[in-house]
């Protein structure tokens, strides 16, 4: 008989042999052999009616069937032979092995993420159970004593937080339940790669400054900078959800171009939140856009509110960009004077001034309009206008003769401010007159001289006329009828400068005048190097009248031919020798 009919392949099995002497009176002597294992016992003697037992062990591979045979003779007088063979005995061997598999469920993870494993131990035997332990060199003990039936498996799903790339090995060690307790082990390993995972988010507005209430566009870009896919949402705290469940492959980007209305200063933040390689990965970006005042202002001031019919008047037209940060581009058109600019660009806080002139026939009211847009992304439109009225006055009176360019005018017969020739009445804060005194002391024969060009410059505070331009120009004009009226003088100290004299006369030296609105002003005549014209003491009110006195200059012209003396010399051509009347 065999100790077991089934064993693990290659294991040994023990056989037990029994030989019984069935004779009642004689001994039996002989040999016992196994047709597979060989001699079991040799020259063995078994007494009458007795039984002898023997054991023999042999390895089993595959299926083994063997028989035992006892061959010998009795000790009777005839030495009677006796031989007998047993029934065959079969022992079958079985494969006794286990397999271990280990798979990284997440073979690549982000640093700090949790890696998962699938570990399976399988009993490959079809006959015997296996009992043992399962231990991982990194993850620790998974089972201390687990029994697995024939053909069955046991699985484990451990996890591990990784910061670096890791390779770990799991080992199952135990034995089968066959008579020999055959040992069987198995192992497996897996590697998990740990990577730095990140996404970048950028948010760029089309402009940092826009007109208040206008729209601005943003360029928002989300980029996956890791080597693992990223999936998540993109949400702006003001502009709303830009993407749900967005997936970006490694190195891929997604761009969005939302718009928003700006009121005041607006700072908003876009956030991309999702997962990559088992870890939460997010990024944010913010942008600030300020809504600015976008307006322009237009002013239009005539050089005089009233002029003689047929005279020309100058206008000072100023267009001002009142924005702090944005430029304005547009056209400036006057409904009477025409186009002043087709496409002018004015920077933030800057102004552009135009000084057109127009001959006044009847009373004229004209409007200048600036139309354009700012340089913000919406191209916000902005315009403004201003108007001015110049009254035409009929100026008539007796003509005088001997003027250098023909008859010069005296004007009347209305009341005349002191210091002007009889008949001149021009209501204005400052009146500048150029007269020919003809050397008389009572000025009864004074006549207005046409053609002088004057400037009024504001004193820079040093009380001296500056030729380098430090004294700012506030008014200029030509006394086409012998006088100029200045309607909008600023308060303070000014210099009246005769830039060009009428033909045949000298330019006068600059005259210092003091203008104080609403107070009486003394009439003054230039009778010295510097004449100060200041308010009267009596407070009677009036205008500031500056009379520039002069007499003709007789300057001979000499050349290779004899000839008469020539009028028309200017003091720029010869040294200043005298100032008649001062």
Give a short overview:
Helix content is 0%, strand content 54%. It is mostly beta strands and 582 residues long. Strands 11-18-17-13-14 form a five-stranded mixed β-sheet, with no helix packed on it. It has a five-stranded mixed β-sheet with strand order 20-27-26-22-23, with no helix packed on it.
Record the SSE blueprint.
Blueprint: E1 6-8, E2 12-20, E3 28-34, E4 38-46, E5 51-59, E6 63-66, E7 68-74, E8 81-85, E9 89-94, E10 98-104, E11 108-110, E12 114-123, E13 130-136, E14 140-148, E15 153-156, E16 159-161, E17 166-176, E18 183-195, E19 199-205, E20 209-211, E21 215-224, E22 230-236, E23 240-248, E24 253-256, E25 259-261, E26 265-276, E27 279-292, E28 296-302, E29 306-308, E30 312-321, E31 328-334, E32 338-346, E33 351-354, E34 357-359, E35 364-374, E36 381-393, E37 430-436, E38 447-448, E39 452-458, E40 472-479, E41 483-486, E42 492-500, E43 511-515, E44 524-525, E45 532-533, E46 544-550
Parallel strand pairs: 1-9, 11-18, 20-27, 29-36, 37-46, 43-45, 44-46
Antiparallel strand pairs: 2-5, 3-4, 3-7, 6-9, 7-8, 10-12, 12-15, 12-16, 13-14, 13-17, 17-18, 19-21, 21-24, 21-25, 22-23, 22-26, 26-27, 28-30, 30-33, 30-34, 31-32, 31-35, 35-36, 37-38, 37-41, 39-40, 39-42, 42-43
């Amino acid at each position: 008989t065999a100790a077991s009919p089934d064993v693990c392949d290659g294991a040994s099995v023990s056989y037990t042999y029994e030989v019984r002497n069935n004779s009642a009176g004689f001994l039996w002597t002989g040999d016992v052999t196994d047709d597979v294992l060989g001699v079991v016992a040799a020259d063995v003697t078994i007494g009458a009616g007795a039984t002898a037992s023997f054991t023999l062990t042999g390895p089993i591979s595959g299926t083994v069937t063997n028989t035992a045979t006892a061959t010998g003779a009795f000790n009777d007088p005839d030495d009677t032979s006796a031989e007998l063979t047993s029934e065959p005995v079969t022992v079958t061997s079985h494969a006794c092995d286990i397999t271990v598999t280990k798979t990284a469920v997440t073979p690549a993870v982000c640093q700090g993420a949790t890696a998962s494993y699938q570990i399976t131990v399988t009993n490959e035997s079809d006959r015997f159970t296996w009992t043992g332990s399962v231990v991982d060199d990194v993850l620790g003990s998974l089972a201390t004593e687990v029994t697995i039936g024939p053909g069955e498996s046991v699985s484990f799903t451990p996890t591990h937080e990784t910061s670096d790339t890791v390779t770990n090995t799991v080992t199952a060690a135990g034995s089968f339940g066959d008579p020999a307790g055959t040992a069987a082990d198995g192992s497996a390993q897996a590697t998990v790669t740990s990577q730095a995972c990140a996404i970048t988010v950028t948010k760029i507005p089309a402009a940092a400054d826009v007109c208040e209430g206008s729209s601005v566009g943003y360029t928002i870009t989300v980029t996956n900078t890791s080597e693992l896919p990223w999936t998540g949402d993109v949400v702006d705290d003001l502009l709303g959800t830009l993407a749900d469940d967005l997936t970006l492959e490694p190195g891929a980007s997604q761009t969005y171009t939302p718009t928003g209305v700006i009121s005041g200063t607006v700072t908003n933040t876009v956030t991309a939140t999702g997962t990559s390689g088992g870890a939460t990965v997010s990024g944010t970006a913010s942008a600030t856009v300020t809504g600015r005042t976008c307006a322009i202002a237009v002013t239009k001031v005539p050089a005089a509110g009233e002029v003689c019919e047929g005279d020309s008047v100058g206008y000072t037209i100023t267009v001002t960009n009142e924005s702090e940060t944005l430029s304005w581009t547009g056209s400036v058109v006057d409904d009477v004077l025409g186009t002043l600019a087709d496409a002018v660009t004015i920077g933030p806080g800057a102004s552009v001034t135009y000084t057109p002139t127009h001959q006044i026939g009847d009373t004229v009211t004209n409007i200048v309009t600036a139309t354009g847009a700012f340089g913000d992304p919406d191209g916000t439109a902005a315009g403004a206008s201003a108007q001015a009225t110049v009254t035409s006055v009929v100026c008539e009176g007796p003509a005088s003769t001997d003027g250098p360019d023909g008859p010069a005018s005296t004007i009347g017969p209305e009341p005349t401010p002191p210091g002007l020739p009889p008949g001149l009445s021009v209501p204005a804060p400052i009146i500048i007159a150029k007269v020919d005194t003809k050397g008389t002391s009572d000025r009864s024969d004074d006549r207005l001289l046409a053609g002088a060009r004057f400037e009024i410059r504001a004193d820079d505070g040093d009380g001296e006329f500056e030729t380098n331009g430090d004294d700012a120009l506030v008014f200029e004009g030509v006394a086409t009828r012998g006088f100029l009226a200045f309607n909008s003088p600023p308060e303070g100290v000014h210099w009246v400068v005769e830039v060009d004299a009428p033909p045949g006369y000298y330019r006068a030296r600059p005259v210092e005048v003091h203008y104080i609105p609403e107070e009486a002003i003394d009439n003054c005549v230039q009778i010295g190097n510097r004449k100060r014209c200041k308010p009267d003491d009596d407070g009677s009110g009036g205008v500031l009248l500056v009379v520039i006195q002069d007499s003709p200059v007789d300057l001979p012209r000499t050349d290779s031919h004899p000839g008469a003396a020539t009028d028309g010399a200017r003091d720029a051509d010869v040294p200043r020798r005298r100032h008649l009347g001062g």
